[in-house]
Design goal:
By secondary structure, the protein is of the alpha+beta class. Helix content is 41%, strand content 15%. It is built from 42 helices and 38 strands. 41% of the residues are buried.
């Protein structure tokens, strides 16, 4: 069977056509008519909007979702002004104007390149003919001028002529321009009630036939009608049709796949992948629709009330037009004002309703979708016209080809240093021999399990040139996956790499803060075949396993490696600098910037390094084919460039690229000598050296820099001389000269601040610059929290706390184990951010005590959180002795020296010591994380039966469970039944297994997790099976999480040992089935295992190690004790009087944000009514009737004025009884009854 080849080579689109629309409107205030402008944008979807009288100032920050703003200011305060809104995705470039007029211009790519100018001429301004002539002469042709010119002339429908009208008429005549206006009125004079035409659209003759001009039928809150230009001929949009999986018929898809994709389908094909891809696309096209129209985002606030008010406004304006009179004009103005209020109120209410949907019952996926909608889409993806070779490119094809040429040039070998070219040419003459009998483990054929695992790990991404989405592959039935696996294995065996897999689509994304008219300032995002990436992931899993188990990667590389992170290098660098300070040494670091690292990676060098590492056979041959003959096209909107070559480099976006790059840069570590400390995170590289003598430090670093330069020359890399910086860390009081260091004879700049792996270091290691920068970022994130957390509306407190922790606290968390060593006075400004976030989430009043916020939110202070994160970090680090940060944390060199200098700030490894013992953490008891010691793809797949999980435990009767269990057991009549269970009682944790009527138990170290107990029980059972004769066994466990972990090969030390035991049993002719059963439903074997586990609590603790994750409970207990000890001291705190134990208290009987806010303020004891005097600087208010201080307690319990009303809702002797025994809605009802609910 043969399928056309073209589909995998060319990106095929169903081109979406629509009219180019331009809108013009004197809005009489951008902010005042913002809502009306949104409705106009929704109705017409204009490519650009010309606005006049925006009344904006140069300090205003404006965000109009979906559009970019170009603005000119009147220069006379908030008066006048002219703007253009350009829709995101429309190619454009600003046009610089030298004029006294309020004009702004932009060059747009529509069906042709057009210059659009928005012009406002105020009524009082005397315009000279030369000003108009000068403006027109500056506009690139063809152009369209749209605006409020305040010129009267019968030529375009006015009843009289003024000087501006005469000047404009002369302008049209002198420059042979045309006017779109057809005589329709565009303006209603608010004082006289007369109509006229003063909003004009002027153009060159070549465009006059391309557009039709008309006036919108509503003033929309202004005194000017919007005018519209709509292209007569529809033109292609920027949209690329996408699969609409919400409407997919997956059952039909699976059925067609089973029918058409069989083992015989592709046997005769020379390119089975191409045929498979085409057939899959054809099947998908029959079952899954594609987006075919431009999605119009409806305004949820545009309700029937809004429609009705606008309808009445239009009706009133038309009635006035037919019956002009002062009375009718006044009626129209009243209805217009009412319509504006209605729209504003409906929008506000719609927003509050939308936000109030965010509750603790809302799925978090939906919450984050709502948050993304609130954030809106950024405007940084819009591509501008390009300046290339002194020419401005405006067509999509030319721009796409310019990008392709620029990106291809970056990956060209011509960019290499001439010396490296000679070296490269000489090296590439040597053929690399990868010949092998393919007996290596990594060269085996692939299994279905590897394919399924690869698909499960894949996250949905944009499609590549073949248009195949991951969802199509994930919905393939097993029979079709077997066919795909066989195609992959055929590629693996024959080495015939599919030609279509060499192709990529590149989407350019503008780099922030750069000149976007230069194609080099765009980041290329490669979209490759999802089918290819699935196979890449399978190959990469084997490649990384071999690299890790054979220790082939340098130990200082922490990028994209299991159990390693950026924090490891940041901890190392901070420790290195602190140790230098304590020894009164100079510390000098060099932070390197690798130019176009991925794009210029030497392909032959990668293959040579693979050969040196011992790779032979199919694996390196596949990688060789993967790297060669790569091509790409650049996509701008829906337009593709010509195909160009990627001569050098690894393809960005490919799964294998990161690993292959790591292999190529791996040898960099070999050039570092013993006196140099190096850090490598993918391509982020730094070196550091310290010493008492600057000359010595300088010499050591220069020797290293020379070696690095030589290494770069021999490996095809180039370090940026301008972006590679040095930093001199020194806390000595006397002035010292900075080092002079050269990289390729270029003097490196010595800076005071440098960002490395997301942390801003300064030369005193004070972290003040980082803290200031972090504060700015967090304040921006807090703005989003403010938008969803009003005191009377918004999400509920639990959800808002979740949002705060994700949006703000996560930023504070990153690197806090390092920058948290800064002086407390510096860190105080971050505490302010923290407290503000908690206040917003809780709805607490501004004067609320900080300690009360911590208790009500069940949140730690930042210093306590830093201790918690530090303990979590070191316990995880303890399980990875090979981590480069291990020694500096667990074997610090200068502990005694720091003890003698208590004023010196110690590194993490020393400053965390005081918390380890109180937290009851035994570091020696932490189990080392290890890779499986044989190829995972050779491992026997465990059989895990989860059949009984389809019966929910909450709704299934015990007898029903027993019956289903009996039926399940009957399926395995020849299997010996084994039961396991784990138990936890306080701190004691035990495991038990019933094997061949024998009871085996084990007591784990205290505070181990129940997961570890269940896993240990399974491990005990498997060890007992190993001591029994070979046969069939079925192991029953009531731990669903454990069985799922076994099924998914979870990275847990106990699970790893279980999998290795199972594999050993399988190769020894044992058959073991893992099966889930519900606990405590009367199943005898499970009850026996449960009883055995509980009885083991009295036994002695077994000497064994536990996973680092089991220490989390100890850490949480310790942090809670720190918090509790501080809270115990707050004896005068109002909240402490009835809540002496810390912890979040859910509010019962409360269903809206305002109720939560009022009740939470009552609990804290600080409300607007009782404590606003503090903010006003006034005396404390007193109760008029009782002559007592006006407090929350007094109002809720003691005030005799409210005794009668209070008795109708509750009777409480104290606050503890009130807030623990009385339902919250009764307290709120009481406050409403006495009229204080809205004052709290």
């Amino acid at each position: 069977m043969f399928y056309p080849y073209f589909r995998c080579i060319f990106y095929i689109y169903n081109i979406i056509l629509m009219a180019d629309t331009l809108l013009q409107w004197n809005c009489r205030g951008f902010r005042a008519n913002f809502n009306e402008l949104q409705l106009l944008a929704q109705e017409y979807s204009p490519r650009a909007i010309c606005l006049q009288e925006t009344l904006l100032q140069d300090t205003d920050s404006i965000d109009f979702r979906g559009y970019n703003l170009l603005n000119t200011y009147s220069g006379n305060g908030p008066h006048g002004g002219s703007s253009i809104l350009i829709r995101q995705g429309v190619l454009h470039s600003p046009v610089s104007l030298n004029t006294n007029l309020q004009a702004v211009a932009v060059r747009l790519t529509l069906h042709v390149a057009v210059t659009l100018c928005s012009l406002y001429i105020p009524p009082s301004q005397n315009v000279q003919q030369t000003d108009l002539d000068s403006l027109v002469e500056q506009l690139p042709k063809p152009f369209i001028i749209m605006g409020d010119l305040n010129g009267h002339n019968p030529l375009w429908g006015s009843h009289d002529v003024n000087n501006k009208g005469k000047n404009i008429e002369k302008l049209l005549s002198d420059h042979q321009l045309c006017i779109f206006n057809d005589g329709a009125n565009t303006y209603l004079h608010p004082a006289t009630g007369t109509y006229t035409a003063i909003d004009l659209s002027i153009t060159n003759p070549e465009l006059i036939q391309d557009f039709k001009w008309f006036v919108h039928d509503d003033l929309c809150g202004s005194d000017h009608f919007p005018t519209v230009l709509e292209s007569i001929t529809p033109c292609p949009t920027n949209l690329v049709p996408r699969w609409n999986f919400n409407k997919a018929d997956w059952d039909r898809f699976a059925g067609l796949c089973k029918e058409k994709i069989t083992a015989d389908t592709f046997q005769q094909d020379t390119d089975p992948i191409d045929s498979f891809s085409n057939l899959l696309i054809n099947i998908a096209s029959d079952c899954i629709p594609k987006t075919s129209t431009i999605p119009r985002i409806k305004k949820p606030w545009f309700t029937e009330n809004c429609k009705d008010s606008i309808k009445k406004r239009k009706k009133a304006e038309k009635y006035f037009k037919l019956h002009p009179s002062p009375a009718n004009l006044n009626i129209y103005k009243q209805i217009q004002a009412k319509a504006r209020r209605t729209i504003k109120n409906e929008k506000r209410q719609s927003w509050r309703d939308f936000i109030s949907k965010i509750t603790s019952r809302t799925p978090m996926s939906k919450v984050w979708n709502m948050v993304q909608r609130i954030k809106g889409k950024g405007s940084n993806s819009t591509i501008k016209h390009l300046n290339c070779d002194d020419d401005v490119l405006t067509s999509k094809t030319d721009i796409a080809n310019a990008f392709a040429k620029s990106m291809s040039k970056v990956s060209s070998a011509d960019n290499y240093d001439p010396n490296f070219k000679k070296f490269k040419s000489k090296q590439e003459k040597h053929q690399i021999n990868f010949d092998s009998d393919n007996g290596e483990d990594y060269n085996e054929l692939f299994s279905l399990d590897e394919l399924v695992t690869s698909l499960n790990k894949a996250k949905d991404t944009a499609v590549g040139p073949d248009d195949i989405h991951y969802q199509l592959l994930k919905h393939l039935p097993e029979s079709c996956l077997l066919v795909l696996r066989d195609i992959f294995n055929n590629i693996w065996l024959t080495g015939n790499f599919p030609p279509s897999w060499h192709d990529a689509i590149v989407v350019p994304i503008p780099k922030p803060g750069k000149d976007h008219t230069d194609p080099i300032n765009y980041r290329p995002i490669s979209l490759t075949s999802c089918v290819c990436k699935t196979f890449e992931r399978m190959v990469n899993n084997r490649l990384t396993w071999f690299l890790e188990t054979n220790n082939l990667l340098t130990n200082i590389q922490c990028g994209f490696r299991k159990n390693r992170s950026t924090i490891d290098h940041l901890v190392r660098l901070e420790s290195f600098i602190r140790d230098g300070f304590i020894n009164n040494q100079h510390v000098v670091s060099v932070f390197f910037d690798l130019e176009k690292a991925y794009d210029t990676t030497w392909k032959y060098g990668i293959l040579n390094d693979l050969h040196s590492m011992g790779f032979r056979g199919r694996m390196p041959q596949f990688i060789d084919s993967f790297l060669q003959s790569r091509h790409f096209k650049v996509r701008v909107g829906s337009t593709l460039s010509d195909s160009v070559d990627q001569e050098m480099g690894v393809p960005q976006g490919a799964i294998l690229s990161v690993t292959l790059f790591s292999i190529k840069i791996n040898s960099l570590a070999k050039v570092l000598n013993n006196h140099i400390d190096g850090s490598l995170f993918v391509d982020d590289f730094s070196i550091s050296c310290r010493g008492s003598n600057m000359a010595t430090v300088e010499r050591q670093l220069q020797m290293c820099l020379n070696k690095i330069s030589k290494w770069a020359l021999e490996n095809g890399f180039r370090f940026s001389k301008s972006k590679t910086n040095a930093m001199h860390f020194c806390n000595k009081r006397k002035l010292h000269n900075d080092p002079e260091l050269f990289l390729d004879k270029t003097l490196l700049k010595v800076v005071k601040e440098a960002k490395f792996l997301g942390l801003l270091f300064d030369n005193k290691l004070s972290f003040i610059p980082h803290i200031k920068q972090l504060k700015t970022k967090c304040l921006k994130a807090l703005n989003l929290l403010k938008s969803v957390s009003g005191t009377k509306w918004g999400g509920d407190q639990k959800t808002l706390l979740t949002l705060y922790r994700a949006l703000v606290r996560s930023k504070l968390d990153y690197g806090s184990v390092i920058y948290g060593s800064a002086r407390k006075s510096y860190l105080k400004q971050l505490q302010t951010i923290h407290h503000q976030g908690l206040r917003l989430a809780l709805g607490a009043f501004r004067t609320s005590p900080i300690s009360s916020l911590y208790v009500e939110a069940d949140e730690t202070s930042l210093s306590e959180r830093q201790i918690k994160l530090s303990l979590q970090y070191i316990t995880k680090l303890k399980s990875n002795p090979s981590n480069p940060a291990y020694n500096c944390v667990f074997h610090p060199e200068y502990t005694a020296l720091y003890e003698r200098k208590p004023s010196a700030i110690p590194p993490l490894g020393i400053r965390i010591q005081e918390h380890i013992v109180p937290a009851d953490i035994n570091l020696d008891n932490i189990k080392t994380s290890k890779l499986i010691n044989f190829p995972p793809w050779q491992m026997a797949k465990p059989t895990v039966n989860l059949e009984l999980t389809k019966y929910p435990k909450s709704t299934t009767n015990q007898l029903v469970y027993q019956q289903h269990f009996a039926e399940l057991k009957a399926q395995y009549p020849e299997h010996v039944s084994i039961y396991t269970d784990g138990s936890k009682d306080g701190v004691s944790v035990t495991a038990a297994a019933i094997v061949n009527n024998k009871t085996l138990t084990c007591r784990l170290p205290d505070n181990s997790s129940i997961f570890s107990a269940e896993a240990k029980a399974i491990q005990i059972a498997l060890e007992a099976i190993n001591d029994s004769k070979a046969g069939r066994y079925i192991l029953y466990s009531d731990s669903l999480s454990c069985l799922q972990a076994i099924k998914s090969y979870c990275d847990n030390p106990f699970i790893t040992e279980i999998l290795q035991l199972h594999d050993h049993l399988a190769t020894s002719q044992y058959e073991v089935v893992f099966c889930w059963l519900p606990g405590h439903v009367g199943i005898k074997g499970n009850n026996l295992a449960d009883a055995a586990a509980k009885s083991a609590h009295d036994s002695s603790i077994t000497t064994m190690q536990i996973p680092y994750s089991d220490t989390k409970q100890n850490i949480n207990i310790y942090i809670k004790s720190l918090r509790q000890s501080k809270w115990d001291m707050e004896v005068h705190n109002k909240l402490h009087t009835f809540q002496p134990i810390i912890g979040f208290t859910p509010l019962s009987g409360v269903y809206c944000r305002q109720d939560e806010t009022v009740l939470r303020r009552c609990r804290i004891g600080h409300t607007f009514y009782t404590h606003s005097y503090i903010l006003k600087g006034e005396d404390r208010p007193r109760c008029v009737g009782c002559d007592e201080d006006l407090t929350v307690r007094h109002i809720l319990l003691d005030c005799v004025d409210f005794a009668t009303q209070r008795a109708g809702f509750y009777s409480s002797p104290n606050l503890k009884h009130l807030f623990t025994q009385v339902p919250g809605h009764l307290i709120l009802s009481f406050l409403k009854e006495i009229g204080l609910y809205h004052k709290f």
